[in-house]
Amino acid sequence: MAKILGIDYGKVITGLSITDNEQIFAFGLDAVPTKKLMNFLESFLSHEKIDEIVIGLPKKLNNQKETLIEKDIQIFINKFRIKNPKILIKRVDERFTSKMAFNTMIELGLKKKKRRKKVILNQISATIILQSYLAKKEKKIN
To answer: Sheet harboring 3-8: ordered strands across?
Structure first.
């Protein structure tokens, strides 16, 4: 079974996560500068079998799409689909993932200096996005 890749797309840094082979658990993978994301994915996909990608869907509290970053995400998705037409792309509501990731960092005992690093925050957010997708997928099966 192929793995699923999770993406927390950001203006500057994009967090990445990945599942285990059985698609049960999500793990932090990396956080890369967004301007280098396509190159990273091209290299990564050349040696890792991925048939599905889950990308966070930024929404406001009133359930409307957050249009500023969503335009950038749509551009990324269109470019990605051209290069990788066989990989499915799913979207998952990402409201509160940054807050949840920050709280996770506190619970892990990370010092203030480390908690300021967006790299760690984005990677944890990507993991939360992917794990929530896996949970929804599991509910549909049962």
So the answer is: 26-33, 13-19, 3-8, 50-57, 88-93
